[in-house]
Amino acid sequence: SPRESQTISSQKKNFTSCMKSHISVGTFNVRTLLTEDRLVELEQALQKTDLDILGVSEVRRANENIIIRQSNYIFYNYGTKRGINGVGFLIKKDLRQNIKYFKPISDRIVELGINLGSRRSLNVIQVYAPTSSSSEEEVDNFYKELEETIIKVKKKTQSKLIIMGDFNSQVGVGKKEENQVLGMYGLGRRNQRGWKLIRFCQQQQLSIVNSFFKKRRGRRWTWQSPDGNYKNEIDFILTKNRDIIQSYEVWSNFEYHSDHRPVVCKLKIDKTIPFPTKNIVEIQKTLDEEKFKSDIQNYFDKKDITVDMDVQTMYDIIENSIKLAINNHPKTKKVESSKLSEETKELIKRREQMRRKKVKSK
């Protein structure tokens, strides 16, 4: 059976009362965090938000890793095979001492436990459901594992439960008899996988948060086809505690390249959350930064750069140069390069602007 990951710190914790009365959580299909630059790009985008916990799908990294980043986040992921599936979390370091555990269920399901004080906890389950090309057996196994995970959480009397991720399902608009599961709002037509998700929510007494908030179409879709012609709502946040949901939104201006958009909600917490009194000590860097920069420049200089080259091609060249440089340096689970260069960030920004302009013109 999957082992329960240890907490970040086993040292005695000193807490102080904090006026923070809510936690913001979100889910996002990142379409790979296999390379370091993709992870850094995601962190750069997150720095501009107030999100506390981000669940991620399609991480595509193998094994189980807990990485204390040089940014403001702790990165946890679990996968069984490089390049396939994989799920995880990025959690703000402010919550470091509140992390009770990480628990891998499979390369499609992971669980995070957060201490809220007074014997209360928040349990967040991040998922990545099988796609439409998967067999019914794969889908059934996914929901069976998810059900077993939920049952164990429900036994914890004072726990709040959030389940979120890419469900690869279209649920559409709710019907009267489904009002405990679905609200009045939705997008598109329900498909077979959508019916399966609805039945699962009815059995587990879960509500689909997305459907209880009125949003215009442009603020509701969570996935779009590569050509931008098709948009659907397939990423969801589920809960058995609808009373804790304060707000919900889909981020349309998140500066990270994916065919999905982050789905975010703010959770009300009854009491103040205990937080550590001491600042978190950063882990010392072991990377030779000057040599790393030199290696990137050397790989970049070998490329055939032309003045008429488009932004995407230029970005790909920079990305590949960074990958090659990373492979020449020792790897560690505790130390990662902390920043993209200003030039790379500018290229990312320009690429995102071009993408938005292209989508708006359709």
Automatic annotation (TrEMBL):
CDD domains per UniProt: L1-EN
Location of the Endonuclease/exonuclease/phosphatase domain: 26-260
GO molecular function terms attached to this record: catalytic activity
Pfam families registered for this protein in UniProt: Exo_endo_phos
Record region (Disordered): 333-362
InterPro entries reported in the protein's UniProt record: Endo/exonu/phosph_ase_sf (IPR036691), Endo/exonuclease/phosphatase (IPR005135), Swc5/CFDP1/2 (IPR027124)
SUPFAM superfamilies, alphabetized: DNase I-like
Gene3D superfamilies per the UniProt record, alphabetical: Endonuclease/exonuclease/phosphatase (3.60.10.10)
Bias type Basic residues, positions: 352-362
Biased composition (Basic and acidic residues): 333-351
Name the UniProt record assigns to this protein: Endonuclease/exonuclease/phosphatase domain-containing protein
Organism: Panstrongylus megistus
